[in-house]
Predict the structure.
Amino acid sequence: MPELPEVQTQVDDLQALVGKRFVAIKSNSIKNFVPVFPQFREILKGLAIERIERRAKYLVFFLEKDVVMVVHFRMTGHFLIDAEDPYIRTVFELDNGTILNYSDIRKFGHFWLSDVHNYERVSGLDKLGIEPLSEEFTFAKFKEILKGKKGFLKPFLLNQKYIVGIGNIYADESAFLAGLHPLSRLENLTLKQKKKLYESIRESLRKGVENRGTTIGEYVDTTGKHGKNQYELLAYKRDGKKCLVCGTEMKRIVVGQRGTTFCRKCQEKV
Ligand SMILES: [Zn+2]
């Protein structure tokens, strides 16, 4: 599933569409539209894009007339600008002839259209935690989030109620960088470990953004190009390979139904 860096890369590319107007939209996979597709299409038609932002793993298109379109890629969604692949589900035509294609092999992606006062509630954005690359996410704030929390590290990193945008890739990367076993208990973290974890979350996500995302499955940018972060992964899906720091064989365990890779030697269980 596209995580913060992958969605950010798409949003960065999509900035080229700001100021353009939707003139037509058609879809061969209409089940995940709110409101229902015919209504969605009628509202969207004729509206210009004022700005495009990322929130967690969602894309938020602010349009004319206080209309907001929210998109979630789920497992395999991505946009392509004037480019195609065999899995185009929805086609947005813009007023200068630009074609914005929405591709999605597994068809789990979701679209919501609402007004500026209700879009967060309608799409579930109102239930999300803090943006890890924002200025508001300080170490003091991170300590506040951890305060009184108990349980394992990995599920905490994946929980979008606390910190958003981290999925399986960047959770494994963050835990590795922090030198913490994914089954470390939050209540046992020392101040020093919390600081290291805070920095590791930001570092792994920033590196992902700089590398324009991680392509392990289908993820591509809006031109159809792969990201580069998969060549720099330290932990994610490296089970059976040698740890890049100490040479020990990396192990895979399942935590909360998610495959999790770590180094027994470099990642301490506390
Ligand atoms: Zn190691």
About this structure: The chain has a mean pLDDT of 97. The chain has two domains: 4-127, 139-262. The CA atoms of residues 80 and 222 lie 4 Å apart. Residues 243, 245-246, 248, 263, 265-266 surround zinc ion (CB under 6 Å).
